């Protein structure tokens, strides 16, 4: 009933919570003995709980309907929210059964997780899942009764007295479920016993609590309209799920379109191919390392991707000029952040992303362009992009030099920190590089046989500043 | 905004169907308020609770793609009040007119903050949000007091049918107004409205019924509790609408890269986009098709970025046919890289093909539209000279049957006539 949707950016969480997949793999390739013992114990405990109880007074029709509902909901995985938590709607069915059927009925409905339509779950995992949900349901039922909750269809006297026992039941259900998952994670060595990361589980629990509360909504009108109440409650939720999926598809198309258009802009110079993509990735790494909020990370990803789109407005012959630049040509190059801003201004991004594109060539000492801002006057997004931009330029091949190694790039960043880059961001980037690594572009060889026209100077390259006629160097 | 309605000043922006709808709603409200004022409010406590829920829903109203104003929570509240049978042990005895009054007052109160910050409500959408639950109330209120109320299965069936009927009525009304506003055929507008509206109608209807039924056991608390599922739905749909709008803005903005790079004239992509959408609508394309057409039209010259030297003046219509096809192919290649916009890529790929090709099938309608729109804009540009545009249309007509699709050229003629 609870699993996690692994997003690429969320691979750490996926590792923790992708139990559904990992456990199967582990089971086939030899689960540690103690984990086997644990799985068998849980299954045995659940079986004895159900086996030793009496089935008197259980409404079998309601039980069957709820079990079917639970299996159906379990088979269509549901997206709950952007935190990548995936809690299927079957949670609601499980908790509705606590109210309508009591401990034994809830255990039976929980055990129905053994039959799921999802093919990616192996037999051991199914059994374990069914057993642990049966136990969760049973214990939730016991807590519900102990707190004074009355089993059966709620009537007009049930509210608001039913709420306290119900909240107790939901909390028990979620807590028991999470403990079972946590123990198996530790036993299969996917998580250390000490230093267990609770945050992802906390997010999961929030989603489970919310869905669990919907169980009461299903149970409340059951006495009046029967199973139809489940249909009415779940209809808006299924539509929400559909809309979330549509949103995700649109987000993907949006990101893919921006990437494709940036690539198209880059086709003019094969030395810079992939630059936007890598700057975007580097900026995102820094943004995460300094703990930006997720929506700002999303915005900086786009800003990094689009930071050089204004370069298109710089005449190709200026970009490819072999010798020193004239003052006018330098001005044309220095205008590109403003050109970029003109293009992307109407996109409904955060304003910060726009500022990042406009100021990504400012320097901490105030000698950058277009505005000559200094220090913390420079918007944070621009300071971040500037680091990733320079690093990628240095570690890529240029027509006039070979690519630096990552270490040389880091050394150069450190050297320019303070004068050119924000030292804190440089350190954050270096840490992120050590943790996540950096995919350096393949060394490019110009296509043979063609007349080669490429950039002779790179405005992004801090190790080789632009040469201007009549002057020494320009930043 | 996917399909911006034509901008017209003041009262002119109201079409006849809209005026009729607003007038009916207005008279109904006046009648209902007068009646309720005369006989007094029954069970004022419940009425105020529902009014408050409707007001909150109205406050949280949102715009869906296609500039459609919706307020799912308010709709659910109004439907719930129209279908209400009993609160706890007290039977609900309010009349249909009282239901209309509560809906209208809630809507008005919820609109006030919007008006205060200068967001004028769309009167026709507001009228529909009042009339649709009113229809339910007029059908269902008399039955709520009849003997039917003791027979649950048939009562639920009647509730569901009434809600569906109201939903259908609302969709038809919206389609009539839309057909008039964006000049498309009623059938097309109806299809678009069904696709856009039905999911939210279903969500509001289901929640309304739940509220009406659950007040039996939960009393007034049901209002609060059962707003939770539809709140999730609303959040989901709002995010969907947001990303759709951002996506379109992005493509519109990035389509300028060919202009900034000096490949095409300033404003070319945007003008071709607008022209193509207007022509597509004239030709009876659905909203989804129009969106794809707009994306393809905005990106139709993206292939030029791969050229070493820009075509003189950027006008592809003057390039050789093989060159035109090469650019179209390169552009389609760029779009294919997204991995998700295959239809758009196909439209762009085939935009340069003549209408009557010697071999193979005719290109898709969207490609034919872009071919004509592109040729027209290449030859007319930003100029507003009537003679020039008339001469260009004449020239395209002369080439039609072989190069251009005659019906598409005719659609262009109508669109250009209207724009003058």
Task: Specify which chain pair forms the largest interface.
Answer: A-B, 63 and 60 residues
Radius of gyration of chain A, CA atoms, in whole angstroms: 29 Å
What count of domains describes the coordinates of chain B? 2
Q: How far apart lie the N and C ends of chain B?
A: 23 Å
Strand content of chain A: under 5%
Question: Can you count the beta strands of chain A?
Answer: 2
CATH architecture of the largest domain in chain A: Orthogonal Bundle
The largest sheet of chain A, given as strand count, sense and whether it forms a barrel, is: 2 strands, antiparallel
Assign the structural class of chain A, choosing from mainly alpha, mainly beta, alpha/beta, alpha+beta, or little secondary structure. mainly alpha
What does this structure look like?
The complex is a heterodimer of chains A (475) and B (420). Chain A has 475 residues and is an all-alpha fold. In chain A, 60% of the residues lie in helices and 1% in strands. Chain A has 2 domains: 2-245, Arp2/3 complex 21 kDa subunit ARPC3, CATH 1.10.1760; 267-436, Hypothetical protein af1432, CATH 1.10.3210. Chain A contains 19 helices and 2 strands. Chain A is elongated. In chain B, the strands form 2 sheets. In chain B, strands 1-2 form a two-stranded antiparallel ribbon. A two-stranded antiparallel ribbon of chain B has the order 3-4. Chain B folds into 2 domains: 10-246; 259-419, Hypothetical protein af1432. With 420 residues, chain B is mainly α. Chain B starts with 15 loop residues before the first helix and ends with a helix.
